[in-house]
């Protein structure tokens, strides 16, 4: 877990691609990525459930156990913890740590920050070495001020969070304000809105791809099928069957 923490370097951020099943994780690991995240949207879609639904808890744990077989560090997106009960969320974090995960991503979806503080405290009390990335949805679930993000980030840091995640935050001055709080800042890569290099220059310590790889895979699957139907060239050069078998 210390190795994962050490990868969060302000100005030289960890690029964290997100997987939704073992094969994708294995293929990403083969490209040299030292750490992987999971994506709640991808996991939920694979099981036919809404994003972050409590019914996807078991699938999330099962994926973490499979990815832990790889020589990578795994951080698990647990949405809102799949429960409002701090003890239940702490139990989930402990189960994931036992499975081999080194971190979790816990979001507030802009509920009362006092409740999120109680969840963070419960997780850190139960699994103090687990890297807890506290996500606030000020810029994702609504159009809120950077002051609100700053207030929540400070509260989560005081509760024991190891990192702060503010998806959707992009304005340079706002990013620098949250970076200035001193806790590793994680931002989401949003095509056309930010660049990896630009976020690094602002002092960001981690850049997540979130559901982007999953959504890109959906488009690639559709483009492949329609290209064959319409007599066009394939959109990508895929790994061979043998290459995929070797990963497994």
- Rounded mean pLDDT score: 97
List the total number of helices: 11
How far apart the termini lie comes to 25 Å
Strand order of the largest sheet: 1-9-8-7-6-5-4-3-2
Percent in strands: 5-15%
Low-confidence stretches at least 5 residues in length (pLDDT < 50)?
none
Approximate shape: globular
Biggest sheet record: 9 strands, parallel
Question: How many DSSP-defined strands?
Answer: 9
Corresponding CATH superfamily:
Phosphoenolpyruvate-binding domains
Q: How many domains make up the coordinates? A: 1
Structural class: alpha/beta
Can you name the CATH architecture?
Answer: Alpha-Beta Barrel
Helix and strand element order: HEEHEHHEHEHEHEHEHEHH
Helix content: 40-55%
What is the CATH topology?
TIM Barrel
Radius of gyration: 18 Å
GO molecular function, one term: lyase activity
Pfam families: PEP_mutase
Protein name: 2-Methylisocitrate lyase, PEP mutase family
InterPro entries: ICL/PEPM (IPR039556), Pyrv/PenolPyrv_kinase-like_dom (IPR015813), Pyrv_kinase-like_dom_sf (IPR040442)
Describe the structure.
This protein has 248 residues and is an alpha/beta fold. It has helices at 2-6, 22-30, 40-46, 57-67, 86-99, 113-126, 146-159, 172-179, 196-201, 212-230, 241-247, and strands spanning 14-16, 18-19, 35-38, 73-77, 103-107, 131-135, 163-165, 185-188, 206-208. It has a single domain, classed as Phosphoenolpyruvate-binding domains (TIM Barrel). Helix content is 46%, strand content 14%. It has a nine-stranded parallel sheet with strand order 1-9-8-7-6-5-4-3-2. Strand 4, helix 5 and strand 5 (103-107) form a beta-alpha-beta unit. The model has no long low-confidence stretch (mean pLDDT 97).
